Amino acid sequence: MKYVPDATADRHFESDHTVDRSGVPGLLSELDEYAVEQALQLKEKADGEEVTVTALTVGPEEAADAIKKALQMGADKGVHVVDDAIAGSDYVSTSLVLAKAVEKLGAETPVDLVMCGMASTDASGSVVPAMIAEHLDLPQVTLGSVIERQGDQVRIKRDGDTSTEVIGATTPLVLSVTDQSGEARYPSFKGIMAAKKKPLESWSLADIGVDASEVGIEASWTLVESTEERPPRTAGEIVADEDGSGAKALVDFLASKKFI
Questions:
Q1: Cβ partners under 8 Å of residue 231, min gap 6
Q2: Which terminal CB of the chain, N or C, has fewer other CB atoms within 10 Å?
Q3: How far apart are CA 136 and CA 43, in angstroms?
Q4: Distance of CA 255 to CAs 54, 234, 243, 246, Å?
């Protein structure tokens, strides 16, 4: 899961042109809530099989709030990878950290599914699930709108522009889901209270075996050279209808802008 700046807040960049994630309000990325929901549904349909849903995130201290939201929804435990060296990491470095954290979790209890959202609501890259799969050397089934599991088989339905695909794979695997997979549940009062007693671990880069030189802005494959504020909106053009010609004037205006 990802802790992202609130889209309704006044967002800023740091001096190195990375997004200021500590100086603005943040929350669990809405698209990742669908992944939490699908993980919880798979647990509920497990027919007596013991299933643990672990919420994993990488980010600053405040990112723990994203895990708490998942715990309130019903996840069993949380893991927060937090380290100052991670700041400014790109997709490649972030996916490495997540993959190493999954490997550490798997050393304790085998991991069957790595569930991800289709993208984050701030960067919208949609590539991290595939990169995690590559780091872990696992198959990936991505952008699922319908998810079904039978034993160690997982099958998804992926809706494209012109067709629908059905894709299956055997666990362990990496899976990502879209916002069409089912509305995410709201935390109940009972869930909010229960979340306070659930374990939430904090890991550093050293805990997962990642060297600081492999992450951060210096290790990124891309670099933002400059940023500037969006220009203020200009006043719109008013089409007056004083003599009954307003409709024609409006059509002419739309045609001149090639909207019709």
A1: none
A2: C
A3: 23
A4: 54, 20, 21, 14
**Which helix (H) or strand (E) is 6 found in, with range?**
none
CB contact at 8 A, 147 and 156? yes
In sequence order, the β-bridge partners of residue 31 are none
CA distance 2 to 128: 11
Q: Cα Rg for the chain, rounded, in angstroms?
A: 22
* Helix and strand numbers, DSSP H then E, in the chain: 7, 11
Characterize the bridge pairing of strands 146-150 and 26-28: unpaired
Residue with the larger pLDDT of the pair 206 and 10: 206
Distance (Å, rounded) from C-alpha 25 to C-alpha 42? 31
Contact 28, 3 (CB under 8 A): yes
Contact (Cβ atoms closer than 8 angstroms) between residue 39 and residue 154: no
Phi, psi of 69 (to 5 degrees): -65, -45
For the segment 157-185, what is each residue's pLDDT rounded down to a tens digit? 998 888 899 999 999 999 999 999 999 99
Dist CA 30 CA 23 (whole Å): 20
Burial (Cβ within 10 Å: 0-12, 13-18, ≥19) of residue 166 = exposed
Tens of pLDDT, residues 187-207: 999 999 999 999 999 999 999
d(CA 141, CA 133): 10
Q: Which residues of 106-138 are buried (b: 16+ CB within 10 A; e: fewer)?
A: eeeeebbbbbbbbbbbbbeebebbbbbbebbeb
Structure tokens at 166: 């059905």
**43-46 own/partner pairs: CB under 8 Å, 24+ apart:** 43/74, 45/149
Mean pLDDT, residues 10-17: 77
Beta bridge partners of 55: 78
